[in-house]
Design goal:
single chain; about 230 residues; alpha/beta; six-stranded mixed sheet; 8 helices; 6 strands
Length: about 230
C-alpha cells in the first residue's frame, strides 16, 4: 500500500480488513521469509551460526480463572498459563531464530505460553545452518536427531537430569556457548523496549502471528539500516 502526502490515512476498519486479507492469504507466516530471501541474496544473512530462543508475551486480555483457561472458556482461547521463575504467567510465547553474526531474525513463530520450547525447535531452526545454539530447554533426543540428520553441529546446552550429571568440561562448554547465545537477547530487548512487545494486541494465534511477523520484518529493516551505516562508516 502506497500513500501520497495528500491522501488520508486509512481508518481502523480498512486496516482490520487488510490484516484479515493477509491472514487469509497465508502472508502472516510468509512475509518474513519473503524479506529474508532478499537479504540472503545480498549476503546480509550469514547462515553459519544460528541462535534459537523464546520469550513470554502477555495476553491482551485480563487473566481468567485457571480452570476456564484449561477448558478453553477464556476470552482468548489460544492463550494459556505457564510458570517462570516460580511466577504465574498468562499469554503466549514468541520463538525466534536469528543469524548469529548480524542478529537478523530468520524465523519467528508464536505459540501458546505452555508450549514446550523443544517442540518448536524444528519449526524455527533453519536447515541451512552450520551450527545452532540454544538453551537446555531444546536439548531433546528429537532435536539432537534433527540436527544429526542435516549435518548441523549441535550448540544446544546439555540438560542435567537425576541420572545425568554435567562434567567440568560440560560446564566450560556452557560458558562458551553462553557467550554466543547472549546475542539473541538484543532482539528481545529491542522488541520489548522499542516495539512495546510485552503484551500481544490481538486474540488468537493467527492474528498474533501476523503481529509477530510484522514486528520481525520491522526489526530486520531497522537492523539492516544499522549494518549499512556501519559498512559505510
Amino acid at each position: 500500500m502506497q500513500l501520497d502526502t495528500h491522501e488520508a490515512v486509512p481508518d481502523e476498519t480498512t486496516i482490520c480488513r487488510f490484516r484479515q486479507r493477509l491472514i487469509a492469504c497465508g502472508l502472516h507466516e510468509e512475509l518474513l521469509g519473503l524479506l529474508n530471501a532478499q537479504l540472503a541474496a545480498r549476503g546480509y544473512i550469514v547462515k553459519r551460526v544460528t541462535l534459537v530462543d523464546a520469550t513470554l508475551v502477555e495476553s491482551s486480555r485480563k487473566r481468567p480463572a485457571a480452570q476456564a483457561a484449561r477448558e478453553g472458556r477464556a476470552p482468548d482461547a489460544d492463550a494459556s498459563y505457564t510458570r517462570k521463575y516460580n511466577q504465574s504467567f498468562y499469554g503466549y510465547k514468541a520463538h525466534v531464530s536469528s543469524d548469529g553474526e548480524h542478529q537478523l531474525i530468520r524465523a519467528a513463530v508464536i505459540s501458546t505460553a505452555s508450549q514446550y520450547d523443544g517442540e518448536v525447535f524444528a519449526h524455527i531452526a533453519p536447515a541451512d545452518s552450520e551450527v545452532i545454539y540454544a538453551d537446555k530447554a531444546y536439548d531433546t533426543k528429537a532435536n539432537q536427531a534433527w540436527l544429526r540428520a542435516r549435518g548441523i553441529r549441535n550448540g544446544i546446552l546439555k540438560k542435567e537430569a537425576h541420572h545425568l550429571h554435567l562434567t567440568a568440561e560440560d560446564w566450560e562448554n556452557h560458558q562458551q556457548k553462553g557467550r554466543v547465545r547472549r546475542h539473541s537477547e538484543r532482539i528481545f530487548a529491542h522488541l520489548k523496549k522499542w516495539q512495546h512487545y510485552r503484551r500481544v494486541r490481538y486474540l488468537g494465534l493467527a492474528r498474533n502471528q501476523l503481529e509477530l511477523t510484522l514486528k520481525a520484518v520491522a526489526y530486520n529493516l531497522k537492523r539492516l539500516a544499522g549494518i549499512l551505516a556501519m559498512r559505510s562508516a
